[in-house]
């Protein structure tokens, strides 16, 4: 059991990097520079390993859920069950924001309720295999799993609330007039699914590596030099306004979650509340400015404002929840 825990908790990697920093680079781990260098090398290797594994697994599962198949599945569900299914599908079908407009049109054209559609659009960017892998690497399985669960809950609740407001008239008229038709759903064999997963690992890592390096680099600087007392005082879990400020600041920004998680890890080590850091990350992914600009092509400003308000408040509540139960997760 100790051997298994040593592997899963990357104790072996932590020790190897410590030896590298102290014996090869000749930098004491007791210094700020030593701590920063160790943080950078250790987190980079650990995240890349878990990122590759998780992307492969989820991509293999995702090969069963093309946008066309996702639409057909959602057509069979109504009411709250539709919101739940939409959020669950959002986990394994994390399409990028550039897919939000055609997906929205396809869902509306298929007669899927707006609330169900938004459950999918909220959960899809928040919960994805890359974010889960880095959370797992940075904070452990408890926080990673609770993050996934709360991401789904935010999607379900947000979709239900938006649906209850009956804002169908806030969808641009031309969307209801589009007839996209049904595309043929291509069935892949086992080898094709494995090839798809491998290619997805290459594509995603190629696309996000620069965000990872920058994020881990900033996290390493924070880890070594940021004043813990000041961060703990103004952004710690005891500051009642910290979560709200984090979400409000994040909403207009566009930031890659993969780059913000290592920064969040370093901030949490310095005393920033877990909920505060994760709420900021959620807000940057679910409420990014580019996605709002794309969605404006198919929905009117009032519905966008409702979407931002409901999702933002939900994320704030999740942030407070994480801060409240942090002692159970660490």
TrEMBL record:
Major subcellular site: membrane
Keywords for the protein's UniProt record, in alphabetical order: Cell membrane, Membrane, Transmembrane, Transmembrane helix
InterPro entries in the record: DUF318 (IPR005524), UPF0718_permease (IPR053166)
Record's keyword annotation contains Cell membrane: yes
Transmembrane segments: 39-61, 144-167, 208-228, 240-261, 267-289, 301-322
Tagged with keyword Cell membrane: yes
Compartments it resides in: Cell membrane
Classification via Pfam families: ArsP_1 (PF03773)
Membrane topology: Multi-pass membrane protein
Family per similarity comment: Belongs to the UPF0718 family.
The name this protein goes by in its record: Permease
């Amino acid at each position: 059991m100790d051997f298994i825990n040593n592997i899963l908790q990357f104790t072996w990697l932590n020790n190897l990097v410590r030896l590298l920093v102290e014996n090869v680079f000749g930098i004491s781990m007791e210094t700020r520079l030593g701590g920063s260098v160790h943080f950078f090398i250790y987190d980079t290797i650990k995240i890349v390993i878990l990122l590759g594994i998780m992307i492969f697994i989820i991509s293999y599962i995702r090969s069963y859920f093309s946008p066309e198949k996702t639409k057909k599945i959602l057509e069979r569900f109504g009411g709250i069950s539709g919101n739940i299914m939409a959020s669950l599908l959002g986990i394994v079908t994390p399409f990028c924001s550039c897919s939000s407009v055609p997906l929205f049109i396809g869902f509306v054209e298929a007669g899927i309720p707006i609330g169900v559609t938004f459950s999918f659009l909220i959960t899809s960017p928040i919960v994805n295999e890359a974010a889960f892998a880095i959370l797992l690497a940075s904070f452990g399985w408890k926080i990673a799993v609770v993050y996934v669960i709360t991401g789904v809950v935010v999607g379900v609740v947000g979709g239900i609330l938006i649906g209850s407001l009956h804002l169908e008239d806030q969808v641009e008229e031309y969307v209801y007039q589009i007839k996209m038709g049904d595309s043929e759903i291509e069935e892949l064999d086992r080898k094709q699914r494995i090839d798809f997963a491998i290619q997805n690992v290459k594509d995603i890592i190629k696309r996000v590596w620069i965000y990872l390096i920058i994020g881990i680099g900033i996290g390493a600087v924070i880890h070594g030099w940021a004043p813990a007392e000041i961060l703990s005082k103004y952004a710690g879990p005891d500051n009642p306004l910290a979560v709200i400020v984090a979400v409000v600041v994040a909403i207009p920004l566009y930031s890659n979650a993969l780059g913000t998680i290592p920064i969040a890890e370093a901030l949490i080590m310095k005393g920033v509340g877990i909920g505060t850091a994760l709420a900021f990350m959620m807000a940057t992914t679910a409420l990014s400015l580019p996605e709002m600009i794309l969605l404006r092509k198919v929905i009117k400003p009032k519905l966008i404002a409702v979407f931002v308000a409901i999702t933002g408040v939900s994320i704030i509540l999740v942030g407070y929840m994480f801060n409240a139960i942090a002692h159970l997760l660490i």
